Amino acid sequence: MIVFLAIANLFWLITLISWTFIIIKGPGKLPLKILPYDLSYFVRNGESFGNSKDSNSTESFDMLTSLSSSTHVLNTNTISPPEMFECDFNGLPYWCFQCSSLKPLRSHHSSVTNTCIPMFDHFCTFVGFTIGKDNFYSFISFVLSMEILLLFTCITIIIYSGIKNQLHSALIVFIICTGILAILVGNLFLNLIYDLKKGETNIESMGKKRWIKDIKINESSIYSNFINVQHPNNPKLRLIVKLSPMDRPYDKGFWNNLLLWNTDFNKFTSSIEISEFQNSMFSNQFKKNIMDRIDHGDYVVFGSQTKLMSVKL
């Protein structure tokens, strides 16, 4: 019994400390406001390309002499776009009006903290707090220690009852309640591991599930995700590529996916540094898949049309 109490109290202590760190650390926030990408140059060239197609002129990217040849001068309040970034169907990056900032680093605005949280995972009603980049490890520790504590308690009571050859009705109720809670917490932990394996946050995983459900209901649904990517052969153009629910843009393998949560985003001191790191978050396999789709013509030229309706996957 002394050993049981020692082990149980140890895991209770780990659980309480982990919960405390979840609150103290908080989910994190963007270290600074991210300046918008300067895309006007590519919009103008995309419009020229669209007009050249309408006029039955050559469609070869190597022959597009009508595109602007002048040197592109950045506006002082913008930065150059990275090689690729997530965008809407028009090819524009996501913008947070509350924070007056771009939303890179897989961030989402939290109404609880009233700020954009990098690598936003979810709001957990179980702990009553938002889970993001800064407190993700503490959340894993909390869930795992809670699961071990619940399982240890159930198994210990069952073994003790077997030794005593008796099982009080109160203990039966306790085992049932503890067992149900252990199943729920265990399911949460397995979902965390599965999301890490895929290189996705919980909110990204839930979004894909809604996306797949929407496609089953309506195959022509325009709900989708998109990538704005620099054309591989023509630096004057950018392309919009439609994604599928099966794409895993940030999957670099389980351990690399886990280590990504340990990144210190506060080390970034400029919008350019954040933009470059955001681009490095995409896996090489994903970048290769995007280039393969471009080779097969599954794209539209950014600026040449307002909606990506004709792309086939």
UniProtKB/TrEMBL annotation:
| Family, per entry | Belongs to the DHHC palmitoyltransferase family. PFA5 subfamily.
Q: Which residues cross the membrane?
A: 6-24, 139-163, 169-190
Q: Name one Pfam family in it.
A: DHHC
Using the UniProt record, give the first listed, main subcellular location: membrane
> Domain note for this entry?
The DHHC domain is required for palmitoyltransferase activity.
Lineage of the native species?
A: Eukaryota, Fungi, Dikarya, Ascomycota, Saccharomycotina
Q: Which residues form the Palmitoyltransferase DHHC domain?
A: 94-208
Q: Which gene encodes it?
A: PFA5
Gene Ontology terms, cellular component aspect?
endoplasmic reticulum; Golgi apparatus; membrane
- Where does this protein come from, organism-wise? Pichia californica
For this entry, the protein name equals Palmitoyltransferase
Membrane topology per the record? Multi-pass membrane protein
